[in-house]
Structure formats: structure tokens, C-alpha cells
Amino acid sequence: MRMLDQILTHNRSFVANEEYRPYQTTKFPDKKLVVVTCMDTRLTELLPRAMNLKNGDTKLIKNAGAIVSHPFGSVMRSVLVAIYELKAREVCVVGHHGCGMGSIQPEATLAKMRERGIGDETIRTLERSGIDLKKWLHGFASVEESVENSVRVIREHPLMPSGVPVHGLVIDPETGELTVVADGDQVEEKEETGLSYP
To answer: DSSP for 2-18?
Structure first.
């Protein structure tokens, strides 16, 4: 059976048996929190459990590497919408050890694209139009530095309201242990006293 057929067969049973009832909530996060994290399969259930989050507690934004790579990209837009429209009041960026974006090789990824039928002309056309595919596909050397950079992009965004703590964490995908790399509350305290933050 095709994957889509499996999903739809299960879904019909899920709806008919009202298995959705335990997950019913509103669009507003109960804990007033936005979490930007990685799409890694190990984090699907582990991260919410490790952070004591249940359905309805947070706005969860996932991408490859928990990277906020562009201040006007879709991740940053989602963070701002969560704050301005959905009543979120804090942000956590959560990267993880052993992230695939830490070892991604842009050249190898481009080679895989070519193997899957993406022509050299398409790649050259994109590059001629100003898109640096190697930079776009590049990951990071240090997950801690990557998280700190994403925190900085969010915190320093010109449309980010003051008073919103932006935290940076790294999770162990085996145990769920969280390590703080940026405490947004300490930044707020430094800003209030007139001190600069790192």
C-alpha cells in the first residue's frame, strides 16, 4: 500500500473513532512560547517531553538545523506572527548535538541533486541569478554557535518588540538533556541596566 493510502486509511479511522479529542486546543499557545527547532526525527516526541510541552502549549517551528538563516525568511515571519498575532511572549531556539546540518557537504548535496535529475543548466541559471547554492546549503561547524547566531537574528530583528526573551538551547537527541547557550532573561536584564549583551 502506498504511504499516502496508509495515511488516509488511518485518518478515516482516527476521525471516525474521535481520537482527535485529547488533542483539541486553541490556536493560541498556552505557555505563550515559540520553539524553533530542527526537523530531526529523534526530536519529534523527545523534545516536547524533555521541555514539558504538551499539545497546545507552544508554536513549534521546524526546519533543517533550527537555523534562522534570513531575517526576512519564513522562519522569522513565523516567529513574528506567533508574537504579534498568537500571543506568544518568549522564544526558544533549540539545536541538537549530532545534527545533520553540522556535517552537510554542499558539493555532495549538489551531486545528489544532479543524480536525481536536476540539470547543470538549472544549477548554473540559479547561480547566475545571484543564488549561492553552496552557501545556501551550508550548515555549521558548531551547534552552539549556530544557535547563538539564530538567537541574535531573532533578538536583533527590527520588527521584534522589546521585552521578548529569546533563549538558545542545545538538546542531546539521545537523553533529552538541555544545555543553555543563551539566556534571554539575562539579556533583558542587561538591556534594562544599559549594559551591552554578547
So the answer is: -HHHHHHHHHHHHHHTT
pLDDT of amino acid 10 = 98
Determine the Cα–Cα distance for residues 176 and 161; give it in Å rounded to an integer: 31
d(CA 109, CA 135): 12
Whole-prediction pTM value?
A: 0.90
Which residue carries 555532495 as its cell?
A: 108
64: which DSSP letter? G
pLDDT band at 197, cuts 50/70/90?
Answer: very low
Q: What residue segments make up the domains of the chain, in order of their start?
A: 3-104+139-192
Is 96 a residue whose pLDDT tops 70? yes
For the record, the C-alpha cell of 73 comes out as: 525568511
Between the CA of residue 42 and those of 64, 72, 100, what are the distances in Å? 13, 28, 12
- 4/80 Cα distance (integer angstroms): 33
Pick among 3.20.20.140, 3.30.465.10, 3.30.420.40, 3.40.1050.10: CATH of 3-104+139-192: 3.40.1050.10
Amino acid identity for residue 14 in this structure: F
Q: Please, are residues 34 and 80 in contact by the beta-carbon 8 Å criterion?
A: no
